[in-house]
User: Which sequence fits this backbone?
């Protein structure tokens, strides 16, 4: 497999979580990263409700659902943390959401640029070893997403012969191994 | 008919229109007043698209569709004009929208309070003489709303025997008569 | 107004009613005639639920909702009365439904042919004097249909100056007058 | 695993296939068995479109989608093969459909009774070894079904240590092994 490693997230601040979240801290889990803007109709109508369904279906021990607020337009409108807080409250979005860090001299925020996202919503699946396995701009069907997440959950690390996935050793000391 | 006269609108500023809009300036037309908040899921999913359908179906000479942004929670988040502008742009809402004037010492903005609204969305129909003929909090069916608007359009003013509605005389000189 | 008079219905048998129904027997009411086939997906998903909403919204004294089963394909499959009965039961369609009479030597049943219908669903509105005022093949929006029905309800017969519509005299003795 | 073995299908006749289909002939594949009635609204609106999405998403080498027409009410109406043929044509359902064999002296057809189904729609997943792994009466979410099918696809037969699933040997000679 030649999947690309996921770039680190550059997040200005986090909502819906007491601690900052990093790729490393989620090592061993499948990650659904949902990049959105609160003023993006397709995000509000489809991608965010879908991400909540993923969160409700899978165990948080297996799948981490993370939102990324990637403001690349209407900065003034979508900028304030209070606006995003109110939005998450009203739409009952309870998974952690990071605000993508603005770039010094560019339109796209840093993580969005590093991942080469084309817009919002963008749905990204990262496998337990930290590789990007899906990157889709626009709407995805539930049937497809459910199957893809389960496929990642059922992969066995090549180096391990045992039934269970033992990620504790690999992840604790050194982060997700390359 | 003992319908209540519609209270004047107290609007801080208007979007999607070059001029301020008053009840009087719409005298002679049926008015659909849609009170909403941009962070209210029911407004975004149902009431605002419905108001756009009304605008697209009826002639602007007959029916005026007016939005009223009645921020009664998350003031900081929904407050700035720039946020509402971006929202209207992204959701392609093209009818005039007034920002309800905040009250000096209360939670509810002024027009919302004057109309006794219970929340958002609230759909209000005002007849060509300026009386409130419908006041509904929550979701309304398209079939019902279509029938109600047409019923108001087809009313004949009590004082007039002729076929057509001649509102020019009543409205030009004195505004909507009390 | 030069609207065409509605042709008489040629119905083999009626369901959901104890008596046969004719245009004349509905004189003075607005009629929504919904032509459908039980194996037509657009009828099942949209037109028939919409017709039920019309029936539930308006008074039966004002608006008569009538189904017409116009089988023009899959005759063997859709033919038996028992199949249609079961269909109406399962989908909770409670308005009267007539089975359009098969033609002697043609594909289209008689009423469908007489009305020049292009297929199913076809939604037809007939005014209280028996004229066809709407004839639409395919899907119609609720907002449009609600407004159109109300417009017909609020028409005043040209010959009458009084407020109410007095159809009893015109309709009892001679059927709907031409 | 103590999953129950799937009972053989007792089918009167097959549509959308040139040959009869048995559990044995599908050995080695995950099977989605969708029990439905053509006059069941939940089947028409949800279960059958969902089964078509499953058919379109997965390779037919991996997942077999099979319909089972289990008429337990309105026998006369739903009975004739011609009616079901027309239904499948109009709704563009292209997977094989078996007509469940009527029982000699009972209301439920034979396969429906053998599987202990409570009604329609019933969605059943059978694993490549012929065991029932899901049995659900009523509506199922796409996200859940997608994940469940993929989980079955990614199971490794207990007796095999190799990466790929070699079902040819087990299935060809002896059918699905008990």
Assistant:
């Amino acid at each position: 497999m030649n999947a690309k490693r996921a770039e680190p997230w550059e997040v200005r601040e986090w909502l819906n979580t007491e601690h900052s979240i990093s790729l490393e801290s989620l090592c061993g889990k499948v990650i659904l990263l949902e990049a959105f803007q609160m003023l993006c109709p397709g995000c509000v109508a489809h991608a965010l409700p879908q991400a909540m369904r993923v969160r409700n279906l899978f165990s948080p021990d297996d799948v981490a659902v993370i939102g990324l607020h990637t403001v690349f337009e209407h900065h003034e409108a979508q900028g304030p943390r209070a606006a995003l807080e109110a939005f998450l409250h009203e739409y009952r979005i309870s998974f952690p959401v990071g605000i993508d860090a603005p770039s010094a001299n560019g339109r796209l925020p840093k993580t969005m640029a590093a991942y080469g996202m084309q817009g919002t919503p963008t749905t990204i699946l990262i496998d337990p070893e930290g590789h990007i396995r899906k990157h889709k701009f626009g709407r995805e069907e539930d049937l497809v997403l459910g199957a893809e997440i389960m496929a990642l959950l059922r992969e066995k690390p090549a180096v391990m012969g045992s039934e269970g996935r033992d990620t504790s050793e690999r992840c604790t000391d050194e982060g997700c191994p390359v």
